[in-house]
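Protocol check, entry for the methods section draft. Step 1: assemble the input record (protein sequence plus ligand SMILES). Step 2: submit for complex structure prediction. Step 3: store the structure tokens unaltered in the notebook. Ligand used here: magnesium ion. Step 1 record:
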Amino acid sequence: MPERPTLVIFDFDNTLVDSRIDYTGLRTALADMLAEAGAPPESREALLRLPLIELVERGAALSPALAGRMWTRIEAAEADGLRGAGAMPYAREVLAGLRQRGFRLALLTNNARAGTTAALAALDLASLLDHAVTRDDVPRLKPDPSGVRLVLEQAGPVRAAYLVGDSWIDGRAAEAAGVRFVGFGPRRADAEARGLRPWAWVTDLRELLDLAWEA
Ligand SMILES: [Mg+2]
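Step 3, stored output:
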């Protein structure tokens, strides 16, 4: 029997791709849409800390049409942020290095499938990933764990599973699905302030090649 592979699930934006999605501007626009539609008052500061999906859920509670307009606004921001975006430094080398070691690699993103597929192809990353799960494929977005569970199903039996991402929503989704979270980038303090306990944290993707994955 071949040994079960180690599965590493990667977030996309600001983990594998250096996208410039203006999340603050986007959340502000969505909060404005809610206020204009007569949503119950909530502090702006609290609204701007919510995952996008929770803002859309507040819109959906007012009207499906509003939720639809909010998704349109989100898709426009994603497309703007991905236009001309490059791969994160060393992303390709690190994915190739992990594959060489027999790891199974997957992508899990809250972005739409069309934009994700186009960006993966443009960045020459698609062939390095075994699975790609997007917003179009999951019942609920990160921080909900359903996307992580879907990747686990697709991957079949694995010896261990990890999720690498730059945001607390990645960590929450991983921990809720029983998968170890490896944080990446400058937002460790935010993740820990929200109660997450990353298995590891790296600030350069090349450090992934040196982690004790088999531990
Ligand atoms: Mg991200």
